[in-house]
């Protein structure tokens, strides 16, 4: 399982622009998502899928060509090529925008790319965490009937009453899972730990898609008839492009979709990480870097 993460996207004001930068001006409120570099030559780069470039540079835990580390949202300032910068729509709070540049676009992109952005579909969101809660709200805003599939009953009220889910399944409830078999057009699987796929493939109807989003470094398994009998597919997806990030922001603003966040200071990060390990955040921490005393952190 990948270590739990604090929001690593950056949202802030442009301090200064370079002589050749044309897209932004000092004072603009902008954001940077997961990518701050790519080769610009390969097929993914040329087709606005730069997140799939094999030479991409991650905005955190990576290195720039000059060997300096990338620190994403964990730094007080950054220098970044305008290609990887998006404008935050007027009226959108910066702390609201940050999770949309990761969790938001992470669900928006596959729904769009896999032909699942049309109204009337029945979707499942497996795992109600940072990505999952955006999944519920984005899918609802697309006009879907949304079922949350969770590992416990603890989040039922928040899923249904606060996020607007239409149904809630506990994955260990065999009778409820059996009753829902074959009813979903897709499941967005956000679980970040090894888990069986078959219970979720069973929820899919004809042509249903299981989209695996969680980072799991162990083989996942299923028997092939689970796919063949129903022409089902298993797919993966990796955040979204800069273009899709812009679309996600516009979509969320137009539909009134807001992320559920807890804003903390840099001095709180260790406690935040411990709470993430305990599945105890609703649903994303955002660090107020500008408001933190970085000397004490
Ligand atoms: N593909 C991509 O582009 C991206 C992938 N990710 C990855 O997606 C995964 C989910 O991220 P995120 O939503 O931020 O994570 P969270 O920790 O916020 O949420 C994960 C949810 O999965 C459920 N879950 C079920 N079993 C487990 C388990 N054994 N351990 C922990 N959680 C479990 C929980 O929901 P419940 O209580 O409902 O069961 C939990 O809230 C991570 O692996 C992350 O790295 C993140 C962003 C982009
Ligand atoms: O290997 C793929 C990792 C994807 C990923 C992207 C963004 C993010 O916040 C993650 O936790 C994982």
From TrEMBL:
Protein's name in the database: cinnamyl-alcohol dehydrogenase
Alcohol dehydrogenase-like C-terminal domain residues: 130-252
Source organism per UniProt: Dichanthelium oligosanthes
Assembly with partners or alone: Homodimer.
Gene Ontology biological process terms, A to Z: lignin biosynthetic process
One of the record's GO molecular function terms: metal ion binding
Keywords in alphabetical order: Lignin biosynthesis, Metal-binding, NADP, Oxidoreductase, Zinc
CDD domains linked to this entry: CAD1
This enzyme's EC code(s): 1.1.1.195
